[in-house]
Write a structure and sequence with these properties.
740 residues; alpha+beta; Hypothetical protein af1432; Beta Polymerase, domain 2; 6 domains; 6-stranded mixed sheet; 29 helices
C-alpha cells in the first residue's frame, strides 16, 4: 500500500493524518473494515497524486479533497462511494492519473462520478466554445441525471471553495460567487440541503457585496438577545400546554441567515426592524408514529390559536403538500402579546431531520416497500427528461442552463386535475403549461380551461390549489405566439415539436408553390438556393420555408429580392424581415475616462443597475461588444459572470467632475401641500443638481415620489439623500435600480 510521500513536511503529514481521522470519525453511515480500507486507499492515492500541488495559501492541495470528503460524510451523511469520489474528484483533472486507472482500482461507478465532476477545457472541443462554464455545468447535470452523487460531490467541492475564497483575487471571487448564487445554491435548495444552501448564500453575499453583508450582520448582532428572549416568551405557554397533553416538544429560536434577511429588506423596502420574520419560532414534536404526524402538527397549531391570533393569509401548509425535496412543515404567523407578528414553524422530529439534512435523511426515511415515487424521484425524472430533450433538440449549453433554471429552480405550486390528481409545476406556469404537462396532444389542441369551474384563456397563470380542466378543439393548432404563454422549457420543447409536425402537413403544397415562384424568377430550384432563402428569413428548416410559402408569408417578390442578387435592396430587405437581434445599451454620456486598471475606450454603463462613481463595479468584456459596467450584485451581472467568468475585467472608478451619471430615488412622504416644492428646492437650488424626471403619486395619506437626477459620484448622491431625509414630511428615501 502507498504511504504519504516525502514532499510533505513532517508537520504536514501529521496534519493530513489528523484530517483523515476526522473524516473517519464523522462518517456515521454504514461502514465495515473493507469500506474503511478502500477509503484509506483513495486517501493515499490522492495524497500522492497531489504531492507537488499547493493552494494559494501555501498549504498542501490535499487539504482540499480531505475537506470535501469530510463535508460529504459529516454534513451530507453520505457513504463509502461518495467519500471515495470526493477524495479523488480532482485527481483526473489535475494529475496524470486516468479514469481507466480509477475504474480499475475503485470500480466503474466511482470513475463515472469522478468524470462527471471533472471540468472541461478547450481541448475537449474541436472548435472554441462560447462558455466553458456553461459546457462544464451541462456535463455535471447530464452526469447527475444517472447518479445524484455527482452533484453532491460538486456541491461539497463548491462549499469548501467558497469557505476558502478569501485567498483568490477579486475578479475570481466574483466569478465563483456569481456562478454559485446562480446555479449551485439553488440546486442545494432543490435537494433539501438547506444548511449548505444558506451558507453558500451568505458566502456569496460576503464577496459580491461585502458592505451589505457586514452591515446586516452588525444589525443582527444588535437585535439578537432581545428577539430571542421575545421568542422564548412567545413559545413558553404553548410548550407548557402541549406537555400537559402528553405531547413532548422542543422549541428553538431561529435566526435567519444574513442573505435571507437582506433579500427581505430589498423585496419589501424595509429596515431590519420592520421585517417581521428575521427571527423564527420553531416547535418540534416528538412523534414516533408516522401516521399521526399530521394530527400532532395540527393539534399544536390549535394550541397556538388558543393564545395568539393567526394571520391566515400568511399560512403555508407544507404538511399536507410536502415540497418536491421532501420538506414538510406548517408555517404560520401569529400576533404575540407585544403586538408583533411572529413567523412560526411546526414540524415533527422526522420532518426536522429531512429539513436540516435533505438528501441523506431522504434515504433514511424512504419507504422501500412503497411503489409511489417520492418528490426527489419525480424531480430527477424531470432532470432526465430535460437532458433527453436537450440531446434531441441539440440545444446549446447556455440554452440548456436557462431551461434547467426555468423548470427546476423556481418555487413550485400544486394544482389538481378534474379527477383530483395532484400536479406539481414551477411557479408562474400557465394553463398551456399544464396542458402540455399532461400530454402533448392536449397542449397542441388547447383552447382554454375551466379553472375552479370558471372559463379562462390559455395564458392564465395558475395559483396554488387550482383545479384545472383543459378544453380542446380539433380545429386548434399549435402557434408560435404560444411561446410567450409558456413558463416551462418542457412545454416549450413539446410546442416546438408540435409546430414542426403541423408544418410538415404543408410541405407538398408549399414546395409546389415555391417551385412556381422560382420558375417565374428564372432561378434554379436547387437545394442551395432554397437553403439560402430559408437562411435569409431566419428559418430553421426547409419545411418551415414551405410552410411560410403555403401561408403566403413569403411570395414571388420576396424570392426575386433575395435570390436575384439585388444588392441595392438587400439592406432594406434585412430591416423589413429580420426582427431578432441585440439592442446595445448606451451610457448617459460617452466617455474615454480611465475606469480602473485598464483603459476602456468602449464601455457602457448598464441601465439595469445604473452604477455611479463610488459604487463597487464589475466590468464584463464580451467579444464584439463594448465592455459592460455593472454593480457586482446586479442580477444581470451575476448571470453574465456565471457564464463568462473569464471575461471579467478588473475595474474601479477614478473620480472626476466631468461626467454625470443618472441615479433614481424613491421617496415616501406625508401627502401635504408644498411637499413637491420643498423636494424640488432641495434638489435644484440647495444641491444644484440637474433633474431628469420627477413623478409623484398619491397613495392615501402618503405620496410616493420617483426622482431621477444626474450626479458625479456616490458622495454627491449620499449628500442629497441626507438632505431629503431632513425634510419634515419625508418618512423614507431609498435608491432604486440598485440592490444596496
Amino acid at each position: 500500500m502507498m504511504t504519504l510521500p516525502d514532499t510533505y513536511s513532517q508537520e504536514e503529514k501529521l496534519e493530513l493524518d489528523r484530517q483523515f481521522n476526522e473524516l473517519l470519525n464523522c462518517w456515521k453511515s454504514r461502514k465495515n473494515e473493507q469500506d474503511v480500507a478502500l477509503v484509506t486507499e483513495a486517501y493515499l492515492l490522492a495524497a500522492n497524486a497531489h504531492k507537488d500541488a499547493r493552494r494559494r495559501s501555501g498549504e498542501p492541495y490535499m487539504y482540499h479533497p480531505l475537506a470535501v470528503a469530510t463535508i460529504i460524510a459529516g454534513e451530507m451523511g453520505m457513504g463509502r462511494t461518495s467519500i471515495i469520489c470526493a477524495l479523488l474528484h480532482d485527481v483526473v483533472e489535475d494529475t496524470d492519473y486516468t479514469l481507466e486507472y480509477i475504474s480499475e482500482h475503485f470500480g466503474e461507478k466511482v470513475a463515472k462520478i469522478v468524470d462527471g465532476v471533472t471540468k472541461l477545457t478547450n481541448e475537449d472541443f474541436e472548435e472554441g466554445v462560447r462558455s466553458l462554464q456553461a459546457e462544464t455545468f451541462r456535463k455535471v447535470i447530464m452526469s447527475m441525471s444517472y447518479d445524484i452523487r455527482v452533484i453532491l460531490v460538486k456541491l461539497a467541492d463548491r462549499l469548501h471553495n467558497m469557505r476558502t475564497l478569501s485567498a483568490m483575487p477579486h475578479h475570481k471571487q466574483l466569478k465563483i460567487a456569481s456562478e454559485t448564487t446562480q446555479i449551485y445554491a439553488p440546486i442545494a435548495y432543490r435537494l433539501g440541503l438547506y444548511k449548505v444552501k444558506l451558507e453558500l448564500d451568505d458566502l456569496c453575499l460576503k464577496y459580491i457585496n461585502p458592505q451589505v453583508f457586514e452591515s446586516v450582520q452588525r444589525q443582527l448582532d444588535e437585535l439578537r438577545e432581545k428577539k430571542i428572549n421575545e421568542l422564548e416568551e412567545f413559545l413558553a405557554p404553548v410548550k407548557a400546554e402541549l406537555e400537559t397533553m402528553g405531547i413532548k416538544v422542543r422549541t428553538m429560536a431561529i435566526e435567519r441567515n444574513v442573505s435571507s434577511v437582506w433579500e427581505r429588506m430589498v423585496k419589501f423596502g424595509m429596515s431590519i426592524e420592520e421585517v417581521y420574520d428575521v427571527y423564527v419560532a420553531r416547535i418540534i414534536i416528538d412523534c414516533q408514529e408516522l401516521e399521526n404526524e399530521k394530527l400532532r402538527c395540527w393539534e399544536t397549531f390549535a394550541v397556538f390559536t388558543k393564545y395568539y391570533y393567526p394571520d391566515n393569509k400568511k399560512m403555508r401548509d407544507w404538511v399536507s403538500f410536502p415540497k418536491t425535496n421532501g420538506y414538510s412543515s406548517i408555517h404560520a404567523v401569529f400576533m404575540n402579546k407585544n403586538g408583533n407578528w411572529v413567523e412560526t414553524q411546526i414540524r415533527t422530529e422526522r420532518m426536522d431531520e429531512i429539513a436540516e439534512n435533505g438528501f441523506a435523511a431522504y434515504w433514511k426515511y424512504r419507504d422501500q416497500n412503497s411503489t409511489a415515487e417520492s418528490g426527489l424521484d419525480l424531480w430527477m425524472k424531470v432532470v432526465r427528461d430535460l437532458v433527453q430533450q436537450a440531446d434531441d433538440n441539440h440545444v446549446s449549453a447556455i440554452e440548456f442552463i436557462d431551461n434547467f433554471k426555468l423548470d427546476l429552480f423556481n418555487d413550485e405550486i400544486f394544482v389538481f386535475t378534474p379527477k383530483g390528481d395532484k400536479i406539481t409545476l414551477p411557479k408562474g406556469s400557465t394553463v398551456l403549461d399544464f396542458a402540455y404537462n399532461i400530454h402533448t396532444d392536449l397542449g397542441n389542441h388547447c383552447v382554454g380551461a375551466n379553472i375552479n369551474k370558471k372559463l379562462s384563456p390559455i395564458h392564465t397563470e395558475l395559483k396554488m390549489g387550482d383545479q384545472v380542466e383543459i378544453i380542446t378543439s380539433e380545429h386548434q393548432e399549435p402557434q408560435e405566439k404560444w411561446f410567450d404563454y409558456l413558463a416551462t422549457s418542457s412545454a416549450k420543447s413539446r410546442l416546438k415539436n408540435g409546430i414542426k409536425d403541423f408544418r410538415k402537413v404543408f410541405k407538398e403544397k408549399g414546395k409546389a408553390m415555391l417551385r412556381e415562384y422560382f420558375d417565374r424568377a428564372h432561378v434554379d430550384f436547387s437545394r442551395q438556393n432554397r437553403n439560402e432563402l430559408a437562411q435569409k428569413f431566419n428559418l430553421a428548416t426547409r419545411n418551415d420555408l414551405y410552410y411560410f410559402v403555403a401561408m403566403r408569408k413569403i411570395g414571388q417578390q420576396d424570392v426575386e429580392n433575395c435570390l436575384k442578387k439585388n444588392d441595392a435592396s438587400w439592406s432594406d430587405y434585412l430591416v423589413k424581415y429580420l426582427t431578432l437581434g441585440f439592442v446595445r445599451p448606451s451610457s448617459q454620456k460617452k466617455s474615454e475616462e480611465k475606469l480602473g486598471d485598464t483603459e476602456l475606450s468602449g464601455y457602457v454603463i448598464s441601465t439595469c443597475c445604473n452604477p455611479i462613481p463610488g459604487d463597487d463595479v464589475v466590468a464584463i468584456n464580451l467579444p464584439g461588444e463594448p465592455v459592460q459596467i455593472h454593480h457586482p450584485d446586479c442580477p444581470e451581472a451575476q448571470k453574465l459572470m456565471s457564464r463568462y467568468g473569464e471575461n471579467i475585467v478588473k475595474a474601479r472608478w477614478q473620480f472626476g467632475d466631468d461626467f454625470a451619471f443618472l441615479a433614481t430615488l424613491k421617496i415616501l412622504a406625508v401627502n401635504k401641500m408644498g411637499f413637491g416644492a420643498m423636494l424640488f428646492d432641495t434638489i435644484t437650488n440647495q444641491e444644484k443638481l440637474d433633474m431628469q424626471a420627477m413623478e409623484m403619486k398619491n397613495e392615501g395619506g402618503m405620496v410616493v415620489a420617483i426622482v431621477s437626477v444626474y450626479v458625479n459620484n456616490l458622495k454627491t448622491l449620499e449628500n442629497l439623500i441626507d438632505k431629503i431625509k431632513k425634510i419634515e414630511l419625508v418618512k423614507k428615501v431609498e435608491r432604486v435600480g440598485k440592490r444596496s
